[in-house]
Amino acid sequence: FHAQCSQRLQSPRMDLCHVPATREKGWYLALMAPNVKGPNYAWLDPSRLYCHPQGFQDCLADLLQPFQGDAIDMVAGIDAMGFILGAAAAAKLQKGFLAIRKAGHLCVQTVTQPYTDYSGREKVMEVRTDAISPGLRILLVDQWVETGGTMRAAIELVERLGGVCVPTGVAAICIENSEGGKWIQERYKCSHCVPPRLQPRFDQHQ
């Protein structure tokens, strides 16, 4: 299998088959690629992690471990990269998946919520009104929580429709210790993949 995998997937820049002998929580974070395109882009690109079979599985397992035994009715992922982790988490939990979209893409009745994203841009998020019933317990998933604006908007949409983000909550590869990130962690059960010793480096975007 290793030889076949190496032949098909390995490149000089990305080894998708190597797995360390000891897989500590967060080992897969090293698979992520740094920003080489300047300040208009996120400082780190996690999408390479998703290309690695074992890395992706271990990331999902670490994200969902704190919610083992919790009652979760549905997983919601945030447009756009939260769709990847959210749909994978829903499949692993054998739950339905709800896409929370950037406004203007859904052809059904929606509710909307304005927000400011990590880059300071003003945007609007929307969700269909027929998927969330009062008391539905929802796990919200996104790729990253930097300033917390996007996640807070998603929480607002879910709760306006009667959904419940407590005691389930929020999962992301990283939840930074920004003002917004702390606000979310103080109010909701949260899960992320960054070990405590590495958190300061992520908060400083190093």
Automatic annotation (TrEMBL):
UniProt-listed GO biological process terms: purine ribonucleoside salvage
What is the protein's given name? adenine phosphoribosyltransferase
What's the EC number here? 2.4.2.7
Question: Per its UniProt entry, which superkingdom is the organism in?
Answer: Eukaryota
Q: Name one GO molecular function term.
A: adenine phosphoribosyltransferase activity
Q: Which UniProt keywords are listed? A: Cytoplasm, Glycosyltransferase, Purine salvage, Transferase
Its annotated compartments are: Cytoplasm
**Could you tell me which PANTHER family the record lists for this protein?**
ADENINE PHOSPHORIBOSYLTRANSFERASE (PTHR11776), PHOSPHORIBOSYLTRANSFERASE DOMAIN-CONTAINING PROTEIN (PTHR11776:SF7)
The UniProt similarity line reads: Belongs to the purine/pyrimidine phosphoribosyltransferase family.
> What cellular-component terms does GO give this entry?
cytoplasm
Q: What is its main location?
A: cytoplasm
